[in-house]
Amino acid sequence: MSHARLDQAQAIKPFIVNLRRAIHRKPELGFDVHTTANLVRARCKS
Fold first, then answer.
1. Over pLDDT 70: what percentage of the chain?
2. Which residue among 8, 26, 36, 45 sits deepest, i.e. has the most Cβ atoms within 10 Å of its Cβ?
């Protein structure tokens, strides 16, 4: 992996970790994942 890609990955790591933690705080089962989808959509737009 190039240094540029590694730097990009490190830059978004806190965002990804926080998103993962938020998703796991309110687990949804099966294909009924409306809250998760809304959370991801909102976080990615900001």
1. 98
2. 36
Report in angstroms the alpha-carbon separations of 28 from 24, 32, 35: 9, 7, 8
The string of pLDDT tens digits covering residues 17-35 is 999 999 999 999 999 999 9
Which among 25, 22, 27 has a CA at the least distance from the CA of 41?
Answer: 22
Structural domain boundaries, residue 32: 3-45
Domains contained in the chain, number: 1
Alpha helices in 1-46 (DSSP H): 3-25, 34-45
The pTM for the full model equals 0.74
